[in-house]
Amino acid sequence: MSHGSMRRTKRRSLIIVVAVVAAVVVAAGAAGGYLLLARTQGTPQQTAASYLQDWQRGSYAAMGKVSVNVPGSGLAGPLRQTAAELGQRRIHLRLGQVTLNGGSARAGFTATADLASGHTWTYPGQLRLVTRNRHWRVDWSPSAIYPRLRAGERFVLSAVWPARAAVLAADGTELSSPSVIAQSGSIALLSGTVGAATAAQAKALGAPYQAGDPIGQSGIEQAYQAQLAGRPSLTIQLEGPGKRVDATAARFAATPGKPVQTSLDMRAQMAASAAVSGASTSKPIDLVAIQPSTGKVLAVVERPGGFDRALAGIFPPGSTFKVVTASALAQKGMRPSSTVQCPSQVTIGGRTFHNDANEHLGTTSLQTAFAVSCNSTFAMLASQRLGGSALASMAARFGFNANPNLGVPATLGKFTTPHQPVDVAADAFGQGTDLVNPLSQASVAAAIDNGTWRSPILVTSPQPRQPGPSHALGPAILGTLRPMMRAVVTSGTAAGVGFPAGVYGKTGTAQYGTGTHSHGWFIGYRGDVAFAVLVEGGGFGANSAGPVANAFLRKL
Q: Could you count the other beta carbons within 10 Å of the beta carbon of residue 542?
């Protein structure tokens, strides 16, 4: 081999060696750069996503398992504390970009917090992640909650509430105005009152409410507190030791409250108030008027005030329940002219039921027995022809056991299906376990007037979702009940009241307690107005409730 050939061979060998060495060096460098990732399980994205999901769910213990530098007491304490300081109801967290930097990473996220004040605070956050024991972990500090939050700092809210919106009648009249209260004081049971929040109430409502802030204390004012109060102007600040303000995190402008409108008709409300205030009896009186074509509550009056007995009380219905029983009998084929018996008393299941003053008519018509309110007739007919299930089914068609949604606490009639003939007989004329109030009985009268039972409506804007469909009663019931309710006024128990033309009704005398006292009822309708009047402890319905109903109708 020549010297030239030998030199060329050596150069080629040297180039190969250099290339191999370079490849080894590059490979070694790459192995060193990726050694950490090869040994670490999972990714920072997975850890950050898991952390944020657990935070959103309130799974603070799970958050702690994927974090380091966690306080000894865990993450629940600081996270719950900051949520309480903000009045945070819910928080939504969305993971953003994750960037790697050697053995650490940063994960951006967006937090959207719904606050008790009605505001929504959205801010960007960031998590620092590190590797520990071959796993990615969140390197926790207060800044993981909010980037500018430091140890020893807390959130402080400053709120200024706008003028409160009003509760309105159907025509826009402000129900809490001095003139309305002067004429119909019990209207405050519906509209409610506003007073200074106690510390406990402020805590229940959440930040930024503080003791002394005006809040609804009852009625619609309380039920629609958030809508009526609106949203305050709000400043969120970070406060350090010694109440030093370190930073302002956010500012929000105030939003005025929105009025709540009701179905109350001021003409009907004032007529009812005048009728109740002018009543000769000193007994408590409760009156509810409803528009049968819509189910809207037109008037609610009570004397005295206090508990809202007209809408939420429970009383035995007495003979006003005969409207339901007679409807069930009509469904079975009975008509006003059907022949019935009206003895002075009747014994069923070992219990004796008697008419008022042991009145007896002998053989008579269903209409006459209804008009004069013959208890024995309906006790016998219910136990012989209906039974408990038929009576319960008809009660349900008139709204018994339904849950009304007026916007304020209210109840309708309560009826428990009787299984023994004696219990069917007692329920049939309202002296069993059935319970009602003026709201429920006004809706019963309204159903006969319009032909359809409707769940009563009070708040119309924003109108609550109604609990269920309306119930058409059908021609058999209407053709039977309407003439019989008219006969009550023209020739029956209410004939002496002096009602104006066109009134249909039913009296009721409902014993309670030991049976020595009774409530007085009158329910009925005229035109597109149905009503129920209860005089608590008033005795005979025609004598106590009848005149109040008459005065109400004549003042309309």
A: 25
